[in-house]
């Protein structure tokens, strides 16, 4: 057996038996599969006949899966298979990144990553694995000198899944020459604009409602939500409202006591200060900058969903010394699992401040570590 094949074999040996051992209800677990299926059964097309809270790639994907497999069982199994393939791609991309970055213990890091996401239910309860795939694909293209068009295409496809891959763009401008950075950025945003322009032409009302829906959701599961008195999750209301574009703009929960623009001024200002002081002399130096961008964004964000830890795990394992990565990544995963499904699925919302404060503390620690350019600690010491 070649060492390069070990990580994906570990992933398959953990994931496949685990999925086969689960009942159908256990497979859906505490995730959003039931919501995805009901959404795909809604009459018409997303963005055209009803509004959705996600960017268009995934809604159209599940629409196609539902037409291919109309029964819920078949739909669920196909979606689980698709997410498993996305996670397998994430393992392979992580392996390539760790090798190209010449990290110490790169094989150990990849095996740990494969084992972690193979057994972490967030990877098949939700669809974030697809967005993580495009994020790692864009990161790989950016760090390994591929064409700016391919880099922008990967980031653009990620933004059409969820908006998070746009957070790669600040580091992209520090890594690539200006002309290539411009081309990659224009490709990413150009792809997004073309898709949304087509949807807007087909149905301006529901496309506009879909774009507005997230901003109307308010705050959830963050310190900002606790300050606002919002103790719920980030779920939307009844599906019956999806045929009403006006329903997407209805504010959910209490209004923000601290306006998002004010916290953005503070955290965004800190981010800009650190960004201009950051010295990127190699691809290795880019990883803490990317982690810093994501960390500050999550600290600013009015909402948090526990499955978003999937975006931080590869950044932590690629940018921190191995022991520190295991400590920080493990603690972050445990806190999120404590929040969902352990506490909130049982209705213990009165304990939400516990997980929110712990997670916020860990994010602050990560930002502090990433701000110190910790990859310098990874370089081998040749003095001995």
Automatic annotation (TrEMBL):
What is this protein identified as? Hypothetical membrane protein
* Residue stretches spanning the membrane: 6-24, 74-94, 110-127, 147-169, 181-202, 258-278, 285-302, 347-371
Superkingdom assignment: Bacteria
Q: Which UniProt keywords apply?
A: Membrane, Transmembrane, Transmembrane helix
The organism named in the record is Anaerolinea thermophila (strain DSM 14523 / JCM 11388 / NBRC 100420 / UNI-1)
Q: Does the keyword Magnesium apply?
A: no
